[in-house]
Design brief:
Rossmann fold, single chain, 177 residues, two-stranded antiparallel sheet, 8 helices, 8 strands, 40% helix, alpha/beta
Length: 177
């Protein structure tokens, strides 16, 4: 897959992609989210390979900030209405083309980016309309390994995946899941 071998930037939505989409809001107004460690490991491997990672989400949550810091996400944008403007800002900063961008989203607000990038994906439980617009539909639901599967697809088309894993392990990288 030529498109996946040229990916330099991974951009992810949060709710319904990195999480299962459920919003848990405590009586104190604090929002809680559940992230999957498999997705975290995929992100760590992508970053190890030199691929930049960005999160662009319409909601704002302290838990997303904490998780992004843990995973050393390169770009975090929360509370964004026009995700496409932010994406253009990031690709300009990195001096890359939209064809070098992978995006995973799950709902209709993600369609402008899905339509503009080189490779796009959606979790298994994404909107049917979105699934019909992407290049790849994961076998996993949002928040349950969909991101990891897509990242493994990208990495296995970019490098020798087995060698990458061995190098990651041999260098005794602090494994952040």
């Amino acid at each position: 897959m030529k498109k996946t071998s040229e990916i330099k930037l991974i951009v992810l939505d949060v709710d319904g992609v990195l999480t299962d989409g459920k919003l848990l809001i405590g009586s104190d107004g604090v929002e809680y989210k559940s992230f999957h460690v498999k997705d975290g490991m995929g992100i760590s491997l992508a970053r190890f390979q030199g691929i930049k990672v960005a999160i662009i989400t319409g909601r704002k949550s302290r838990s997303v900030e904490v998780r992004s810091k843990e995973l050393q996400i390169d770009f975090l944008y929360q509370g964004i209405i026009n995700k496409e403007d932010v994406l253009h800002e990031i690709v300009t900063t990195l001096d890359i083309d939209l064809q070098n961008v992978f995006y995973m989203g799950d709902d209709i607000n993600d369609l402008p980016i899905i339509r503009s990038v080189g490779f796009s994906a959606a979790p298994k439980d994404a909107s049917e309309y979105v699934k019909s617009a992407v290049n790849f539909v994961s076998n996993f639901t949002g928040g349950n390994g969909a991101v990891r599967e897509a990242i493994e697809l990208i990495l296995s088309n970019k490098v020798n995946y087995e060698a990458l894993v061995e190098q990651y392990l041999n260098e005794k990288i602090m494994i952040i899941q």
